[in-house]
Amino acid sequence: MKKIISIAMILVAFSTAHAFAQAPTPSVVVGSFKHKFANADRPSWAVVKDLYRVDFSLQNQSLIAFFNADGELIASSRNITLMQLPISLNSSLETHFGNFTVSSLFEVDEHDGIYYYAKVSNQKSEILLKSTSYGDWVTKQ
Fold it and tell me: Which of 13, 67, 114, 115 has the most other CB atoms within 10 Å of its CB?
């Protein structure tokens, strides 16, 4: 659970930060990436905490994937639009946070399922939301 929360916070930081220190990426990690994303273009590696992050393009989409040192894919992510959000989540977002502006929206594919994250804000606050398997949003801290 701690790793999932860490990944969520890292992904939020990625929406505003662009520069990360380069470190050598183990061949087992690179090999796993090439196997999972065989047609990926322009991979760019960085180390974030104890994970290897790779930014790349696949089918004209910008994606991010995280691998551990053993080459295991921990999660992959992509920015999405409101139109790409499942209908139930889009409706719930509008119902409960209609007076907020969505500043970023991304999909995270993890071992236990696909989750959606939305960063919403108004004049008073900024909130990170995570989808549940029931089609609702919960506040992340």
Answer: 67
